[in-house]
Amino acid sequence: MPYATYTTGIGYRRDLIPDEQIRGMSNPYEILWDTKYKGKIGIYDDYREALSMGLLKNGITDLNTGNPKYINEAQRTLTSLINAVNVRTSINGAYLGIPKGTFDIHQAWSGDMVAAWQYTPTQNMKTWQTLGYWFPSNRKGAVFNDTITIPANAQNPVLAHHFLDWMMTYKNAMLNFSWNGYQPPQRKADPTTLTTTKSYYGEPYVFPWMADAVVFEKDFHVGYFEEELTPQVDQLWHNAWQAFNSA
Amino acid sequence: MPDAPVSRPHRRVRVLPRRRPRDEASGAWYPRWYWPGFALPGTLWMLVLFLLPFYVVVSIAFGTVDPVFQSPLPVYEPWWWTGRYLREEWGFATGEFRAVELRTIVYVVLATAICLVIAYAVAYYVARFGGKRKGLFLALLIAPFFISYLMRMLSWVELLQPNGYVNTVLTFLHITPHPINWLAGVPFTVVMGLVYGYIPYMVLPLYGFLDRIDQSQLEAGRDLGASPFRTFIRVTLPLSKPAILASLVIVTLPMFGDYYTNNLLSGSPKTTMFGNLLDNSMEATGQGPEAAVLVLFLVVFLMIPMLYYLRQTAKAQRDQ
Q1: Mean pLDDT of B263-289
Q2: Regarding beta strands A41-44 and B64-65, do their DSSP bridges make them parallel or antiparallel, or are they unpaired?
Q3: Mind telling me how many Å the CA of A166 is from chain B's nearest CA?
Q4: Quick one: average pLDDT of B89-106?
Q5: Which of B56, B82, B108 finishes a domain?
Q6: In the predicted model, is pLDDT for residue B299 greater than 90?
């Protein structure tokens, strides 16, 4: 069952990097290489996500490529981040590290940034406004749809289906969205209203200055999916990731 | 007439009844299996929780992966083993992983050396000069064990934040004009993290040994005209060599496989340790055999200090 939709873009501190700066760049992915933010830049500790970012920066849009040339170039691109900005890898750097000031810029899933306001040191509008998210305006970036699955050998499949039904109700799906920031693919949840409709917490589901984090159905027509790789191609990706980590 | 052969008297061999081994101390008799029986729980433990799992690791390293789910498929029959993953990872281990391997050795050696200097001083002080407060000191030495390693590291993450207490104090005292980004891939932070995390494991064995050193031997050194420093160098230090070796082994072996200290306190490829490469393989789908091979490499490498320790221990026992 489709559970959560999200995109992969760049999370950043709006008090340090104005929206216009990143949006005005010809290739905004290059902000990750900006030496001005050395020591405060992070990417996900995930070989697919990190190398996909390298591919997109290099202009390669096939995020499932098995071409060793592209994969190795993406690895070299990532490796150049080490000396350029002393990049760090983390899995919670976007939603936790940016609000706390550990990172100024971090590769980010849209859901992480939507929920990041819950982790600011002080809970007020001023600090929430320091959180920003960029995704290509033409929506040509990495897009995902996580699912909930019942295994074929589940011990309680009926109960599992009841749970899915419960999760699929508009009320519960949106309550969950309020908490974890990951947008459910609900027909009733009009994406154009998510920046104005109030969530369980009394704030908009998505803050208006983070409108890039809202996922639209059309994103799945123009965006790029990360699909399962063949074992041989997966090995190439993994080797490239290990090479980056041991650089 | 030749002499009649001298008939040799029959040697009467008295067959003694099979005697049970005598316990020399108490004079009591015990069946043969009595004392070896005490080793049974430990032997079973080793078999079930070490040798068996280790064989599974070996079987995964020389096995394959499920073609659909990419989960590791151990091959238990050695005649079906494949060396494919071993060859691949050996290529990496002697190639692009070399920087990580060297870095790991440097970090571990540095951290262990710092641990030894601090732990020895602490253990020596408590053992020699603890006096009536020895119990209190011991409780303080054990105190870190009440908090999990992970929690202690996470505390450091908070303390070392750009706006954390460490930077607040340093800037307040004008030791540094600007906050230092300790968590931005700084080798010093990782090494100190290792020291902080593992030092309690070194203090206790050192204390246990130093506390048992016969004071009369130290007094003999002093009576023969040696200064306190010379007595320490010529008597205390050589006597505590087995404890130093044991504590080095206790601390060094887990340090080589450590990955979360670096993950938490750095996260930068600049400080990647061998444990991180292993962790990356463990986390990735379809990389089970690669991870198992890296485990085997680490085990083989760690056999070197382990064998040295065993050799030294055996030598010390022979010399006694």
Answers
A1: 91
A2: unpaired
A3: 29
A4: 91
A5: B82
A6: yes
Residues B248, B111 share a domain? yes
Nearest to B92 among A90, A101, A242 (CB): A242
Residue B275 binned pLDDT confidence (cut-offs 50, 70, 90) = very high
pLDDT of residue A127: 95
How close A226 comes to chain B (CA, Å)? 15
Residue B290 lies inside a defined structural domain of this protein: yes
| Residue B220 belongs to a domain | yes
ipTM associated with this complex? 0.81
User: Which CATH homologous superfamily contains domain A2-245?
Assistant: Periplasmic binding protein-like II (3.40.190.10)
User: Could B280 and A242 be called an inter-chain contact, meaning their C-beta atoms sit closer than 8 Å?
Assistant: yes
Mark whether B70 and B216 lie in a shared domain.
no
Query: Which among A88, A238, A246 has CB closest to B266?
Result: A88
What percent of chain B has pLDDT above 70?
Answer: 91
CATH of the domain at B239: 1.10.3720.10
**How many residue contacts between A and B have a Cβ separation below 8 Å?**
76
CA distance B80 to B82: 7
Q: CB A11: neighbour CB atoms within 10 A? A: 28
B23 domain residue, yes or no: no
Are residues B128 and B213 in contact, defined by beta-carbon separation less than 8 angstroms? no
The answer to whether residue B233 sits within a structural domain is yes
**What is the arithmetic mean of pLDDT over B103-109?**
96
Are A82 and B286 in contact (CB < 8 Å)?
Answer: no
Is A89 in the B-facing interface, judged by CB distances under 8 Å? yes
pLDDT in the model for residue B56: 96
Q: Does the beta carbon of A243 lie under 8 angstroms from any beta carbon of chain B?
A: yes
Q: Which two tokens stand for residue B246?
A: 């044991």
Domain match, B141 and B202 both: yes
pLDDT for A246: 87
Cα torsion angle, A143, A147, A153, A155, sign: positive
Residue B67: list chain A partners with CB under 8 A: 231
Alpha helices (H) along A118-196: 125-128, 157-168, 170-180
**Taking the mean position of all CA atoms in its chain, how far away is CA B268?**
26
Domain boundaries, chain A: 2-245
Range of the domain at B291: 98-319
Burial (Cβ within 10 Å: 0-12, 13-18, ≥19) of residue A137: exposed
pLDDT (tens digit, 9 = 90+) per residue, A48-104? 999 999 999 999 999 999 999 999 999 999 999 999 999 999 999 999 999 988 899
Would you give the end-to-end CA distance of chain A in angstroms?
40
Q: What is the pLDDT of residue A68?
A: 96
Q: A238 and B92 in contact by Cβ < 8 A?
A: no
- Indicate whether B53 and B150 sit together in one domain: no
Do residue A102 and residue B100 have CB atoms under 8 angstroms apart? no
The better pLDDT of the pair A11, B319 is held by A11
